[in-house]
């Protein structure tokens, strides 16, 4: 039994109208979280584990007294973080947006924050943010060379060797295309390589930038702090992490940047590089029309 289910009889407070005269409406929330200690986003109902969905639903119940099922835009994997996850739920709560946000934050775990609450119009149509989104933006952080970033070990991927940023950028240019392109070679789902499966995506941006290392790090050897930003209309399962891992393999000299077009044409995950670990990935923003 999940932690959320265990707590369903113990609301700390309720912001519901006493006479239940107000019609149900939908509320959209922008959520940020550190995904390190959670078993992914989607509720699983497994004994001894907790997911982000379960933790958020628990906080909503302890705020409004309602046992809701939230609808999320992205079902992030275990260890993945977010600054712009979008959730929607149905409620009778009439509290204003700021009051509801603050009430939720007082009950959410320290690793989760509600950044914004937006009341939606009263409607019989249930909004599904995953189906209505038209794009997402992700950021991946890498520390290459130098000393292990101890205090950020759950937010960045530490690559011991210095990577060649120039070759990584060359590979990124070959991967990026403003029109639809087949990214089956970067999907973590085996069935995506089968004929007839839609593996076409449109990338709106694929940028690699460098941050300035902290002085205490620079004193202990050369180091590169890298951010890879990626936005697109849709992403295949583990596509972002597989692209990042391939770019790192290019930077380490394991893959030739000029082989990227052949990797794309192969539609074979084995032709691309390694998959990057979840901990360096953050869902930054979700776009709606």
From TrEMBL:
Catalytic activity: uridine(38/39/40) in tRNA = pseudouridine(38/39/40) in tRNA
Protein's recorded name: tRNA pseudouridine synthase
tRNA processing in keyword set: yes
Enzymatic class: isomerase
Swiss-Prot/TrEMBL GO biological process terms: tRNA pseudouridine synthesis
EC annotation from Swiss-Prot or TrEMBL: 5.4.99.12
Keywords: Isomerase, tRNA processing
Native source species: Albugo laibachii Nc14
A GO term for molecular function: tRNA pseudouridine(38-40) synthase activity
Taxonomic placement: Eukaryota, Sar, Stramenopiles, Oomycota, Peronosporomycetes
Keyword Isomerase tagged: yes
Domain Pseudouridine synthase I TruA alpha/beta: 31-117, 181-288
Active-site residues from the entry: 77
Gene from which the chain derives: AlNc14C347G10871
Family: Belongs to the tRNA pseudouridine synthase TruA family.
Annotated positions binding substrate: 138
């Amino acid at each position: 039994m999940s932690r959320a289910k265990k707590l369903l009889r113990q609301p700390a407070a309720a912001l519901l109208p006493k006479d239940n005269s107000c019609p149900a409406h939908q509320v959209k929330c922008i959520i940020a979280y550190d995904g390190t200690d959670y078993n992914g986003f989607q509720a699983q109902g497994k004994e001894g584990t907790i997911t982000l969905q379960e933790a958020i639903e628990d906080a909503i119940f302890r705020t409004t007294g309602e046992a809701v099922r939230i609808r999320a835009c992205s079902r992030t994997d275990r260890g993945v973080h977010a600054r712009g996850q979008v959730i929607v739920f149905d409620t009778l709560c009439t509290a204003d947006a700021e009051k509801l946000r603050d009430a939720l934050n007082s009950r959410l775990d320290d690793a989760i924050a509600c950044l914004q609450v937006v009341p939606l119009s009263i409607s019989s149509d249930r909004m599904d943010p995953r189906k209505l989104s038209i794009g997402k933006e992700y950021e991946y952080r890498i520390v290459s060379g130098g000393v292990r970033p101890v205090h950020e070990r759950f937010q960045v991927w530490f690559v011991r060797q210095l990577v060649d940023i120039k070759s990584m950028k060359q590979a990124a240019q070959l991967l990026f295309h403003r029109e639809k392109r087949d990214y089956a070679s970067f999907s973590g789902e085996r069935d995506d390589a089968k004929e007839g499966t839609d593996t076409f995506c449109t990338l709106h941006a694929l940028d690699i930038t460098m941050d300035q290392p902290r002085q205490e790090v620079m004193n202990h050897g050369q180091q590169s702090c890298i951010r890879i930003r990626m936005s697109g209309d849709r992403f295949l399962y583990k596509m972002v992490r597989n692209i990042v891992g391939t770019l790192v393999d290019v930077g380490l000299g394991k893959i030739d940047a000029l082989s990227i077009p052949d990797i794309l044409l192969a539609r074979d995950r084995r032709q691309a590089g390694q998959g990057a670990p979840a901990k360096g990935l953050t869902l930054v923003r979700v776009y709606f029309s």
